[in-house]
């Protein structure tokens, strides 16, 4: 069985595939055009798929009828039409758990960076403008005892909540499709409506799977209901936020600041007005970018392919 891997991955994943006797196809150039990518996909049985640049939708499956399984190198699967894959009996593997710690670390990092105005202060140092000690300048805010609101309390949201609880004794409120009993018992997390979440959070952090209904969910009418000292954090998917509205809300001081590891589109344009704001910290989608997480992702994605090639169910599968 052939496996097309569109970018190099940590060796641990490649070893698993080799030991299973699978034929690995790697492109000569990793920055494939859509046409080049389709050609590779037409000549393989399975894909170990890195990145969300190209969609797995009806048009794709129609022109690549030989594809039997896809193992995503990500936990998110918003670039896959799962219904379409289901209709064609194509399992879609993903890589949950192994990146929860790393991604929640980035949410925690962004929260503190925005609270203590790290981007603004770093910029001043780079400009040679350190300045004299000033009791009234560049003041941040402390997070102790504040309220963390989590939108989407799954594995990553749980780890963010746990860090905030332990480090800053923060109260946890959350809005989710269903109750998270572990978070309620272990962290004292309280389930609230979406409206209560946005009104009562001092830090609002998104950790949900992105679906089309979520597009621009965080828009001006949401931001204006938030507390003027609230910090907005997104490490999930950029589509959750309307960036023009976020800019307006920040310039009108409806909220304190924003920390984004994901933007819409990605990459964010270097002339995005959000980058001019001192209380915005933007990272280039590095949530899972640790050696440990990326090796874990390589292992799970490879194990998904091997399971499929043995006629077994993928151990980590996005299809219901
Ligand atoms: C994921 O795994 O979904 C991360 O966002 C990396 O794409």
Automatic annotation (TrEMBL):
A Pfam family hit: 2-Hacid_dh
Keywords: Oxidoreductase
Coiled-coil annotated residue ranges, if any: none
Domain D-isomer specific 2-hydroxyacid dehydrogenase NAD-binding: 110-287
Gene3D superfamilies for this protein: NAD(P)-binding Rossmann-like Domain (3.40.50.720)
Location of the D-isomer specific 2-hydroxyacid dehydrogenase catalytic domain: 4-319
GO MF annotation, one: hydroxypyruvate reductase [NAD(P)H] activity
Enzyme class: oxidoreductase
Family matches, as InterPro entries: D-isomer_2-hydroxyacid_DH (IPR050223), D-isomer_2_OHA_DH_cat_dom (IPR006139), D-isomer_DH_CS1 (IPR029752), D-isomer_DH_NAD-bd (IPR006140), NAD(P)-bd_dom_sf (IPR036291)
GO cellular component: cytosol
Record flagged with keyword Magnesium: no
EC number: 1.1.1.79, 1.1.1.81
Top-rank taxon, per record: Bacteria
Reaction(s) catalysed (UniProt annotation): glycolate + NADP(+) = glyoxylate + NADPH + H(+); (R)-glycerate + NAD(+) = 3-hydroxypyruvate + NADH + H(+); (R)-glycerate + NADP(+) = 3-hydroxypyruvate + NADPH + H(+)
Keyword NAD: no
Family (UniProt): Belongs to the D-isomer specific 2-hydroxyacid dehydrogenase family. GhrB subfamily.
Stated name of the protein: Glyoxylate/hydroxypyruvate reductase B
Native species: Chryseobacterium artocarpi
């Amino acid at each position: 069985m052939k496996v097309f891997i569109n970018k190099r991955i940590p060796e641990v994943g490649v070893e698993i595939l080799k030991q299973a006797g699978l034929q690995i196809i790697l492109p000569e150039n990793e920055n494939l055009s859509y046409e080049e990518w389709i050609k590779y996909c037409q000549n393989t049985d399975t894909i170990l798929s890195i990145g969300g640049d190209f969609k797995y939708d009806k048009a794709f499956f129609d022109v690549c009828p030989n594809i039997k399984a896809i193992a995503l190198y990500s936990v998110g699967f918003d670039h896959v039409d799962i219904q379409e894959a289901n209709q064609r009996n194509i399992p879609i593997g993903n890589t949950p758990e192994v990146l929860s710690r790393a991604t929640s670390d980035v949410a925690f990092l962004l929260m503190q960076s925005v609270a203590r105005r790290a981007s603004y202060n770093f910029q001043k140092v780079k400009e040679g403008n350190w300045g004299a000690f000033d009791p009234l300048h560049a003041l941040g805010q402390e997070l102790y005892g504040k309220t963390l609101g989590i939108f989407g309390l799954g594995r990553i949201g749980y780890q963010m909540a746990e860090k905030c609880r332990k480090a800053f004794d923060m109260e946890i409120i959350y809005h989710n499709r269903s109750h998270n009993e572990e978070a309620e018992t272990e962290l004292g997390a309280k389930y609230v409506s979406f409206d209560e979440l946005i009104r009562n959070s001092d830090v609002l952090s998104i950790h949900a799977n992105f679906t089309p209904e979520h597009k621009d969910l965080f828009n001006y009418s949401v931001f204006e209901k938030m507390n003027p000292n609230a910090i907005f954090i997104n490490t999930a998917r950029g589509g959750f936020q309307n960036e023009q509205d976020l800019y307006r809300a920040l310039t009108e001081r409806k909220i304190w600041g924003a920390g984004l590891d994901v933007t819409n589109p990605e990459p964010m344009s270097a002339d995005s007005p959000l980058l001019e704001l001192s209380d915005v910290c933007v990272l280039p989608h590095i949530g899972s970018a640790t050696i440990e997480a990326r090796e874990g992702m390589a292992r799970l994605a490879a194990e998904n392919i091997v399971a499929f090639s043995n006629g077994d169910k993928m151990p980590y599968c996005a299809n219901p």
